[in-house]
Amino acid sequence: MPMRIQGISNGSEMFNPKISIMKVNVHAVNFTVDRKLVDFIQERMDKLEKYYDKVVSADIFLKVERTSDKENKAVEIKINVPGDDFVVKKQCKTFEEAVELSAESLERLLVKRKEKIRAHI
To answer: What's the CA gap between 81 and 61, in Å, rounded?
Structure first.
């Protein structure tokens, strides 16, 4: 059964309505996730708001694939923005590396979306 750990917000969004902290849910499939890894993921996901500030939530699924391959750590990130969902999957040697590569892909997707929306205004 997947384990869910919800992201922690610092509460500052109550005082400044421009700050929108996205909800980050980490799902570890068939293993227990380390708090250090959850903090790393939260920090990396928060950086995405720099590229597109309307991200509502992010679901991160961490899986260890049963292969003989050394790159058996799979990360799937699904982010929700108004009107769309973006899904990126990466498989690497470590979860940190997979999260980093996924986040870079999402940055490119979010920049494209922002440019597309600006072109229609």
So the answer is: 18
**Residue 51 and residue 33 in contact, taking contact as beta carbons nearer than 8 Å:** no
Q: What is the pTM of this model?
A: 0.78
Domain boundaries, the chain: 3-9+19-120
- Architecture, CATH, for domain 3-9+19-120: 2-Layer Sandwich (3.30)
Residue type for 64, please? V
Contact 106, 88 (CB under 8 A): yes
3-state per-residue secondary structure call for 39-64: HHHHHHHHHHHHCCCCCCEEEEEEEE
The helix (H) or strand (E) run that includes residue 85 is strand 84-92
pLDDT digits (tens, 9 = 90+) for 20-71: 578 999 999 989 999 999 999 999 999 998 888 888 999 999 999 887 778 8
Give the number of other Cβ atoms within 10 Å of residue 86's Cβ. Answer: 17
